[in-house]
Write a structure and sequence with these properties.
By secondary structure, this protein is of the alpha/beta class.
Length: 268
């Protein structure tokens, strides 16, 4: 329980394998010819914004004749009011003609933890889990004591579609393509990509976003909210706080090009 709370409130950062310092040179942006990627940041239960952004992507890609992939960076659930409906859309209304990659976010992992060990992961209810339970019709009239947490878990298990559970368990931790690495939270500076551990990929924050090290790939991530997209030589952060700002961001990558599609902003 202590470790779980530390992660939510800002857990102490582990040291990387090497002293953090700026790496030599920069990774040049590159996606293989004939491919276009649309990478969507943290959705957090905002079905309305996801529907809007996916329509923008569909229109944007109409004239593109190559292979198209949508990468979702995780945190589909919590905070916004329609977590269940977001998962329904991802499962049942995929963009036609697009491949899809779904990455696991720390909020999805914490929901899975709650299903396995409700007493240990009960803090989930305090940082977005309550509204997720409500989206599934799970009652919250009970006092959140240890025994009641088990009852809430049991009710969620009864109302959670099997397809949703299988989807959450199938989400990946990373995706790499061209000169990019896609991950929910970030990576541990100084460790090779194949040495990264799930806890960092889902939860890391300060040590990653402050690093100017050459990671060997341009890391595209969500998790750490900023008012505008963060463009750094070694990373691109695209969590623009959609659940409260109304701005859900998609990073569009093609060849060496990088551009944005965003809800709540006039496209010019």
């Amino acid at each position: 329980m202590k470790k779980f709370v530390e992660r939510i409130l800002g857990r102490p950062e582990r040291k990387g394998g090497k002293e953090d310092q700026a790496g030599s040179g920069q990774v040049e942006p590159f996606i293989p010819a004939g491919r276009r990627l649309y990478c969507i940041g943290d959705i957090h239960g905002r079905l309305d914004l996801l529907e809007e952004l996916q329509e923008m992507i569909r229109v944007d890609a109409e004239s593109f004749e190559g292979e198209k992939t949508v990468i979702y960076l995780g945190d589909f659930i919590d905070r916004g009011a329609q977590s269940k409906q977001v998962l329904d859309l991802l499962l049942e209304q995929a963009l036609e003609g697009f491949d899809a990659v779904h990455l696991l976010g720390n909020h999805e992992q914490t929901m899975l933890d709650f299903l396995e060990q409700p007493q240990a992961a009960g803090a989930w209810l305090g940082f977005g889990g309550q509204v997720t339970l409500m989206s599934y019709g799970v009652g919250l009239g009970r006092v959140q004591m240890a025994r009641q947490l088990v009852l809430l878990r049991d009710e969620l298990e009864a109302k959670l579609p099997q397809s949703h559970l299988e989807f959450l368990r199938s989400c990946r931790l990373t995706h790499t393509e061209g000169s990019y690495c896609f991950v929910h939270a970030g990576i541990r500076p100084g460790l090779e990509l194949e040495q990264q551990v799930p806890d960092d990929l889902l939860w890391i924050r300060d040590e990653f976003v402050r690093s100017r090290r050459n990671h060997g790939a341009i890391v595209v991530h969500g998790h750490s909210i900023t008012e505008e997209v963060e463009w750094q030589p070694n990373r691109i952060g695209i969590d623009t706080g959609a659940y409260y700002s109304g701005m859900l961001t998609a990073l569009v990558l093609e060849g060496a090009g990088q551009r944005l599609l965003q809800t709540g902003r006039d496209s010019a």
